[in-house]
Amino acid sequence: MRNHRNFWDRNAGRYDRFMRKDRAAYEEMYALIRPVVKAKTVLELATGTGLIAKHIVNAAAHIEATDASAEMILEAKRDNQSAKLHFSVQDMFRLPYADKSFDVVIVSNALHIVPQPEKALDEIRRVLKDGGVLIAPTFTHAGNSFSGKVKAFFMKLAGFPLHSKWASEEYLCFLRQNGWTVRKSAVLKASFPLTYAECVKMEV
Question: Which GO terms describe its molecular function (predicted)?
Answer without folding.
Answer: S-adenosylmethionine-dependent methyltransferase activity
